[in-house]
Write a structure and sequence with these properties.
The protein has two domains: about 60-195 and about 230-385, Metal-dependent hydrolases (TIM Barrel); about 200-230, no CATH class. Helices cover about 25% and strands about 20% of the residues. It contains eleven helices and 15 strands. The protein has helices at about 40-50, 85-95, 115-125, 145-150, 175-185, 205, 215-220, 225-230, 240-250, 285-295, 300-315, and strands spanning about 5-15, 20-25, 30-35, 55, 60-65, 65-70, 95-100, 130-135, 135, 155-160, 190-195, 335-345, 360-370, 375-380, 380-385. Strands 1, 2, 3, 4, 5, 12, 13, 14 and 15 form a nine-stranded mixed β-sheet that branches. A three-stranded parallel β-sheet has the order 6-7-8. It starts with 5 loop residues before the first strand and ends in a 14-residue tail after the last strand.
């Protein structure tokens, strides 16, 4: 143990399996050396003879930093919507120590090695938390996928339906086959917006029939298509479906919970529901939103570690660096006051556009301090110092 080691104490130290009174010992690199029971931690303090830097959170819970694997930063290209500095600022305030940026809605999207380099250049020096990157699968980019894997993307995302932006076109079955062949043996993940279109009626047949005949109308809309369309409708506003999602989590049928932070400018939200941009800005509040609901359903703080930290890290192949309070992992730590509450107001929002459907909502659980690799990045309601985050990428040369 060197003089630069730190010890973080809490009466409620939270792992995925237990909650106990103890501490986390961190070395000068910002890596966890050990997770200790309180008596072991006190013994270590005595042995250090005042040389060990000790931070005691008291009753605040000490949890692993949240890993949000679904964040649209939109830089470069749509920086009026969001950017690396503002998105990671909001993340740090929300107890998120790692975000993984989606391949869209930036311009260019992360679909080639050169496009990834462009995005990395935009992010360098501007991130308050650590940032990983998803690559994208679009029509015709199968020859770029292995280069992106070598560069360090955590996986790939594609759309089977229109994505909402022209520069990220959706793919079909043939494109997927090409992508699978290109990625075979890499161990990479391919994630889907899984709304693959069903076969449509043959336009050549229906076009030859009298358009004024009712049978022509019926043949252009076979019952199969109507039934399939209805079966895909999910009304998340209905309480029954909402509770079904929670039941899936309580029954351990879900692996993770993330924000899908997808911001935009105010004007894109001011039209009717069919035309408005479909994303929600929530990266800053995901931890507290989850805890507000989870705590009323009998879940304890271990659920945060499991679903918000460890689960997303596993999906992205970051489990050997992130997502848990475990020896050898990065010391991404959060002091969290689970019993305190706060109200979301526009003046506390840190992402670029002060839009979120949660304004006015009272949430349970307040982030007190956020540490990335042992370095304090958020405390007392504000960012601490200049950006200290790293880009989780390599092999760009």
């Amino acid at each position: 143990m060197t003089d630069e080691c730190q010890l973080f104490l809490s009466k409620r130290l939270v792992t995925e399996t237990k909650i106990f009174d103890g501490g986390v010992l961190v070395d000068e690199r910002g890596v966890i050396v050990d997770v200790l029971e309180r008596n072991e931690a006190e013994k270590l303090i005595t042995q250090s003879k005042g040389k060990l830097k000790v931070t005691d959170g008291g009753d605040w819970a000490l949890i692993a930093g949240v890993v949000d694997s679904h964040v649209h930063v939109n830089e470069p290209g749509r920086t009026a919507w969001e950017g690396f500095r503002t998105a990671t600022n909001a993340a740090a305030a929300g107890g998120i120590t790692t975000i993984v940026d989606m391949p869209l809605n930036s311009i260019p999207p992360t679909t080639t090695l050169e496009n990834l380099k462009t995005k990395v250049k935009s992010a360098t020096g501007h991130v308050y938390v650590d940032v990983g990157f998803w690559g994208g699968v679009i029509v015709g980019n199968q020859d770029s996928l292995r280069d992106l894997v070598k560069a360090g993307v955590v996986g790939f995302k594609c759309f089977l339906c229109p994505s909402g932006v022209d520069e990220f076109p959706n793919v079909g079955a043939e494109d997927l086959e090409l992508a699978f062949n290109a990625l075979e043996g890499t161990g990479s993940v391919l994630a889907f917006h899984a709304e693959l279109e069903d076969d449509c009626p043959d336009d050549k047949t229906t076009n030859k029939q009298d358009p004024e005949e009712y049978n022509t109308y019926l043949e252009s809309r076979p019952p199969k298509m109507e039934l399939n369309a209805i079966s895909l409708i999910t009304s998340f506003l209905e309480r029954t479906e909402y509770e079904m999602l929670w039941k899936c989590l309580l029954d351990d049928k879900l692996d993770l919970v993330v924000s899908d932070h997808s911001p935009c400018t105010p004007d894109l939200k001011c039209s009717n529901n069919l035309e408005a941009w479909g994303g929600i800005s929530s990266v800053q509040f995901g931890l507290s939103l989850f805890w507000t609901q989870a705590s009323t359903r009998g879940l304890d703080l271990r659920a945060i570690s499991k679903y918000l930290s460890n689960g997303p890290a596993n999906l992205c192949g970051l489990q050997n660096r992130k997502g848990a309070l475990k020896k050898g992992l990065d010391a991404d730590l959060v002091y969290f006051a689970p019993d305190e509450t706060f109200v979301i107001k526009s003046d506390i929002i840190r992402h670029k556009n002060k839009l979120t459907p949660y304004i006015g909502k009272e949430l349970k659980g307040v982030v007190k301090k956020t540490y990335v690799r042992g370095q304090l990045v958020f405390a007392e309601g504000d960012i601490v110092g200049e950006p200290k985050g790293k880009l989780l990428i390599g092999g760009l040369d």
